[in-house]
Amino acid sequence: MALRVRHPNLLSLVLLSLLAFASAKVFFEERFDDGWESRWVKSDWKRDENLAGEWNYTSGQWNGDADDKGIQTSEDYRFYAISAEFPEFSNKDKTLVFQFSVKHEQKLDCGGGYMKLLSGDVDQKKFGGETPYSIMFGPDICGYSTKKVHAILTYNDTNHLIKKEVPCETDQLTHVYTFILRPDATYSILIDNVEKQVGSLYTDWDLLPPKKIKDPEAKKPEDWDDKEYIPDPEDKKPEGYDDIPKEIPDPDAKKPEDWDDEEDGEWTAPTIANPEYKGPWKAKKIKNPNYKGKWKAPMIDNPDFKDDPDLYVFPKLKYVGIELWQVKSGTLFDNVLLTDDPEYAKQLAEETWGKQKDAEKAAFEEAEKKKAEEESKDDPADSDAEEDEEDSEASHESDSESKESGEDNEEDKHDEL
Ligand SMILES: *[C@@H]1O[C@H](CO)[C@@H](O)[C@H](O)[C@H]1NC(C)=O
Ligand SMILES: *[C@@H]1O[C@H](CO)[C@@H](O)[C@H](O)[C@H]1NC(C)=O
């Protein structure tokens, strides 16, 4: 009975979601299933110098589904450039959603995990660092200082970085990065389907000259009083203040016993700083009753500002690409999407990353545990025999524990054998 009740619900859910996405337009979607190599072109950039890195088609060392593969940088100190073409389109009057997932298995300390959208005609075999792009988006990590999401927009042949600081994820798990650009010139940046930044192209990039500027003609009025504090005119210098000496003879000094006035001259005590001396007299400061605040030039319309209602438009989007330099390889890209529907993108993220993230995390933790165990095993024994005995006892114990805790550990042991 319960099944029968549930089925119609499920069905209507499926129908509902089909209806919801009936209007979604997908410009490009790459899940890196079979045949991906026919859709992506590996660039020859840096190949002559033997610096073009190879991609590994893999689900990585830890994953939530071993059959769900992506492409991973596999050689250290290499340049990577790969791109895919899609039917050219303009995002005019449409929302543009650019999304992909990225996993830095190598514990990235310096390198990018971003992707690019290119426009017009590009020789994909020559795609590289110099190739002009329209949008560059995704995480970038270098040392302690750079851990951010790039969102670079090219306008009037100039690359403009976002002015907001958007922190990126820094762990070794898969994360989904989403950039949404809307026809009202607003944008959102999401990580793992959570909005991290939202705003306007007008304020968060310097694409156009500013709308308002300080009036360059304006001058501070002569009588503008911008001193917040003034000396108190009521305050008077106390009588005799200037007579207080800066230094006085040390009252504790004593004429040495063997001092001979005739031979050594008249003895005078050394001087010390006078504790009574307070420096030159200054009147107390009081709030200036005529203080008008800091003077600011009035803002006026900037004569150089010309609005561009198509500020958000990229009229000839045609390629998506990855172009990176990696010191340490291991960055894995998957599920690249270009659509006009944020809901569709959200759903795709849920179906892929969302479904797999818990299993991936568990696999990662297992891998870390194994690594730690192996490292401690490899440690040269610098302990004495007694401690060695304890160690082996301890490992026997954990063996019997793992037997109880199930099959996985059994398999691990087989692997080790
Ligand atoms: C590709 O990735 C898998 C999984 O991490 C790894 O076992 C394999 O060695 C990698 N191959 C290359 C050529 O890097
Ligand atoms: C485009 O760039 C050129 C050269 O830098 C500049 O002279 C021009 O004012 C820019 N136009 C806009 C609309 O920003």
Automatic annotation (TrEMBL):
Pfam families for the chain: Calreticulin
Disulfide-linked positions: C110-C142
Major subcellular site: endoplasmic reticulum
Subcellular location, record wording: Endoplasmic reticulum lumen
Leader sequence residues: 1-24
Annotated binding of an alpha-D-glucoside, by residue: Y114, K116, Y133, D140, E323
GO biological process: ERAD pathway; protein folding
A Gene Ontology molecular function term of the record: carbohydrate binding
Region Disordered, residue ranges: 212-274, 349-417
A single cellular component GO annotation: endoplasmic reticulum membrane
Extent of Acidic residues compositional bias: 381-392
PROSITE patterns per UniProt: CALRETICULIN_1, CALRETICULIN_2, CALRETICULIN_REPEAT
Function per UniProt: Molecular calcium-binding chaperone promoting folding, oligomeric assembly and quality control in the ER via the calreticulin/calnexin cycle. This lectin may interact transiently with almost all of the monoglucosylated glycoproteins that are synthesized in the ER.
Family listed: Belongs to the calreticulin family.
Full protein name: Calreticulin
UniProt source species: Arachis hypogaea (Peanut)
Lineage, top ranks: Eukaryota, Viridiplantae, Streptophyta, Embryophyta, Tracheophyta
